[in-house]
Design brief:
The structure is a single chain. The longest helix is centred in the middle third of the chain and has 19 residues, at 49-67. 32% of the residues lie in helices and 34% in strands. By secondary structure, it is an alpha+beta fold. A hairpin with a 3-residue loop joins strand 4 and strand 5 (108-117). The protein has a three-stranded antiparallel beta sheet with strand order 1-5-4. Helix 3 (37-44) runs antiparallel to helix 4 (49-67). The radius of gyration is 14 Å and the shape is globular. The protein has helices spanning 17-20, 28-34, 37-44, 49-67; strands at 7-15, 76-81, 84-89, 96-104, 108-117. The protein has one domain: Ribosomal Protein L22, Chain A, CATH 3.90.470.20. The chain is built from four helices and five strands.
Length: 119
């Protein structure tokens, strides 16, 4: 067995203005299709909430790319532990371990996710 069997990688780059152009106050149903209540509350506690929405979206897209499965955004839960992003899958898509990194710049958020299928 190769040491890379079951390992996946995904990366995603998101323009923060995509979220700024869809204000939460007038597009709640859009945000609720993508993010959990906890994720929404987390992002809204910051004055630059759209930066955080973009980052969480990038994490979810990167996870999907890393496992190469059709999975709903609402089935992916993101959080932060000691300022590091944590991600998990809510429903049964298989068992995985994830490592993630997230970064923001003025106009963009980028995320990378490494996944390893638990065999």
């Amino acid at each position: 067995m190769n040491e890379l069997d079951g390992v996946g990688i995904g990366i995603d780059l998101v323009e923060i203005n995509r979220f700024k152009e869809l204000p939460y106050s007038t597009n709640k149903s859009f945000y609720k299709k993508i993010f959990s209540e906890e994720e929404i509350d987390y992002c809204l506690k910051f004055s630059d909430s759209y930066r955080h929405f973009a980052g969480k979206f990038a994490l979810k897209e990167a996870l999907i790319k890393s496992i190469k499965k059709r999975i709903g955004f609402s089935d992916i839960l993101t959080s932060h532990l000691d300022l590091k992003p944590e991600i998990k899958i809510e429903r049964n898509y298989g068992e995985y371990n994830f490592r993630a990194s997230l970064s923001h710049e003025t106009d963009f958020a980028i995320a990378i996710v490494l996944s390893r299928k638990i065999i």
